[in-house]
Amino acid sequence: xxxxxxxxxxxxxxxxxxxxxxxxxxxxxxxxxxxxxxxxxxxxxxxxxxxxxxxxxxxxxxxxxxxxxxxxxxxxxxxxxxxxxxxxxxxxxxxxxxxxxxxxxxxxxxxxxxxxxxxxxxxxxxxxxxxxxxxxxxxxxxxxxxxxxxxxxxxxxxxxxxxxxxxxxxxxxxxxxxxxxxxxxxxxxxxxxxxxxxxxxxxxxxxxxxxxxxxxxxxxxxxxxxxxxxxxxxxxxxxxxxxxxxxxxxxxxxxxxxxxxxxxxxxxxxxxxxxxxxxxxxxxxxxxxxxxxxxxxxxxxxxxxxxxxxxxxxxxxxxxxxxxxxxxxxx
Length: 331
Description:
Blueprint: E1 4-10, E2 15-21, E3 26-32, H1 37-60, E4 67-74, H2 83-90, E5 98-103, H3 105-112, E6 118-123, E7 127-132, E8 139-141, H4 155-171, H5 179-187, H6 192-200, H7 211-219, H8 223-247, E9 254-259, H9 267-277, E10 284-288, H10 294-304, H11 311-327
Parallel strand pairs: 1-4, 4-5, 6-9, 9-10
Antiparallel strand pairs: 1-2, 2-3, 6-7, 7-8
Helix pairs in contact: 1-2, 3-10, 4-8, 7-8, 8-9
């Protein structure tokens, strides 16, 4: 009898659910709203997971009882105390097979590393960094606390710093920047005075999607925007170095997997990250994950059910699943 597996990637802006059989045939895929309880609360997390799961399982023509294993990568799962309430939400799906839960950052390493171990850095709406060694007995991570813990930089943190540079341009503490023009154009302010007033009085609220404006202005050569991208790359490199140090990888040959939409913004982000990492860990192998993280969730589900793929079989499965998702015009 053919076995079926589920993978789920739940982030700050979307939920992906993938269902495939043991041969890598994609049977169902669906996308829904945010799955991070820190963004939408546990009720929103449950509602978005339930609706996305229901759509995917319907497309697959299966039921929850048909799934042998399910893997969930959930943004906002950073501490042991969060496992119980997150699992309580997952358990509402009434899955009969084995279930595994990890932070969504770890999906990057599962899908992006040919060896299945190393360090992974995510830079999407937020940022995070996790890793483990070849035996998967030593683990490393940062707090996942973002700005409050001095961890940068996803799109949220980049926009946060952009507001700072706009304020410096307004006060004269820093140079003028074309960032002011593009943000005034988007939000309708006739001048920087009014833009800053509207931001600081809460009349308008910048959001992580505005990070693309920073990349656009940087591509035009604006010094402030370029420095912001370099800053973000350096900070992401520092996150990686932190976990590299925890795992004692400084002199090791290991995979360093990058996932998240920020890495699509400009090659300068990765270049600056490399400038920060290579002096500390010169054998790091930078890899931009080719397939969506939800594929890593499905591999996690297979692992949980005792169907662990290694070597070429694992790589072939990753490619088949990614191709299957793309053939459906998804992810």
